[in-house]
Amino acid sequence: MALYTTLHLYNVRPGREADYAAWFDGEHRAALATLRGFRDAARYEITPEQLGDHSQPWRFLSVYDRDVADPEIDVPALGPLLADARDAGLIADDDAERIYTYRLYADWKGSPNWQRDQSLSGVSVLLGNYVAGRFEEYDTWYENVHSVEVANVPGHVAMKRGELADVQVAPRRYCPGDQLVMTAQQSDDLSFTIGEFVARALGQSPSGIAMQPRSTAGSIARTVHYFRKVSGDTQWPGGIAYGGDWSAYPDKTFRAATA
To answer: Topology of domain 2-255, per CATH?
Structure first.
């Protein structure tokens, strides 16, 4: 068995947003339960707060997590279920829709910030690449250094990574990122969380924490997209998840992880 995550990036036909939400949490979720190895599905909407000036062509993201035994059979099986949304006229006809499947290196790697009994508030998706011939260096830096630094930022709670799978869900289109870096958030102040990430990267955080220099094994050919969770019955209850010293941020409201 191996973990796979499929990203469905898309826009909804104007005026059909409520219909899509009802379809996703109703008949679509019921159909997903019949897929072999299905674990979870969640839907997200793009946030006004973003990191840098990357293009944001998609309003919505659906994430499908599966633990599959035979990728050549199991991964494409999602395709007909997504086609139901197109057939129902729910997907905007703007040529923006993309479906990318990644084989994960591991499941979520959490930090002390993570409150596992609570919902995520959102996720960020980095579609990236490594410099040719330097994968081992790139992977070691991410696994041992950068994943820890990022997941410990207030409001960031976990990270998972993967590589573009050999088998994809139809219709297959060019993907700009061979490497997936997905970071989970539990924060009701995303502007602060993103700002603190940048401050730590620049060595300017009031906490005194500074990230190590970015590895040159990571290509600058990457895009980053932040989304807030919009599906499911439970939502992040508020505050900023952080397991560190709150005193550096006296004007912020934090939520302590439960034992």
So the answer is: Alpha-Beta Plaits (3.30.70)
